[in-house]
Amino acid sequence: MIAANLPAGTGLHIPLPSGHSIDIINTHGSQVVDFWAFVKADPTEHLSMPHCRSCLEKLHFTKGDVLYSSKRKRILEITEDTSPGVHDSLLSACDDERYRLLGVKGWHANCAHNLEKALEEANIRIASLPAPWNIFENVATEGGWLEIKPPLSKKGDYVRLRALDDLVLVLSACPMDVVPTNGTDCKPQDIQYRLTQSPGSSP
């Protein structure tokens, strides 16, 4: 088992072989993690929120659900979810323009930049950035409107994902500090992750 910390506002890439799992842990209870997955053999195939929503016919994915790629291939399975199971599949990653529209002057750390940097470090080149799965993010959908609310997760809650193909993951501990994406105090915090090898999988 490999356990590590991801500092607030930063991102990284993680290889995850088929049959292996990752636990994404909400260390402090209110931190959102923007999450992407790319098929190692062909990174143009990636975890796709539109395809997940279409195949699963739901907005929130939780324990027992299988997540789909942009080619409708099953690439991840949610094997554990100790949170209430509210994870956003609708919103795009925060980026420079998002913060500008929120009134921020100058550059601000953002998940789109974290993704680009992580892909560069992983030597992965793609034409456009896919939308993330926003783990632990609480977005209410009422009357056709969307409202970002504080996460419902608690300290120590985690989501466990098992790879169904050789993947490269990207995690971003979202740096949003303007709206309550990361809690009522709008304070980004670090998260933890654990990598495990499932019984019977190849080393």
Question: How would you describe this protein?
Answer:
This protein is mostly beta strands and 203 residues long. The protein has one domain. The chain has three helices and twelve strands; from the N terminus they run E-E-E-E-H-E-E-H-H-E-E-E-E-E-E. It has helices at 49-56, 96-101, 111-121, and strands at residues 2-6, 11-16, 20-25, 33-39, 66-68, 74-81, 133-135, 138-142, 145-149, 158-163, 167-173, 191-197. The strands form three sheets. It has a six-stranded antiparallel β-sheet with strand order 1-12-3-10-6-5. It has a four-stranded antiparallel β-sheet with strand order 2-11-4-7, covered by helices on one side. A two-stranded antiparallel sheet has the order 8-9. A hairpin with a 2-residue loop joins strand 8 and strand 9 (145-149). It starts with a strand and ends in a 6-residue tail after the last strand. The relative contact order is 0.35.
Describe the SSE topology:
Blueprint lengths: L1 E5 L4 E6 L3 E6 L7 E7 L9 H8 L9 E3 L5 E8 L14 H6 L9 H11 L11 E3 L2 E5 L2 E5 L8 E6 L3 E7 L17 E7 L6
Antiparallel strand pairs: 1-12, 2-11, 3-10, 3-12, 4-7, 4-11, 5-6, 6-10, 8-9
- Rounded mean pLDDT is 95
Q: Would you count the extended β strands for me? A: 12
Tell me the count of domains. 1
Q: What are the secondary-structure elements, in order, as H or E?
A: EEEEHEEHHEEEEEE
Q: What does the overall shape look like? A: globular
Note the gap between the termini: 12 Å
Secondary structure category: mainly beta
The main sheet comes to: 6 strands, antiparallel
State which percent range the strand residues make up.
Answer: 25-35%
Helix content: 10-25%
Low-confidence stretches: none
Give me the Rg, rounded. Answer: 16 Å
Counting H and I runs of at least 4 residues, what is the number of helices? 3
Trace the largest sheet across and list its strands: 1-12-3-10-6-5
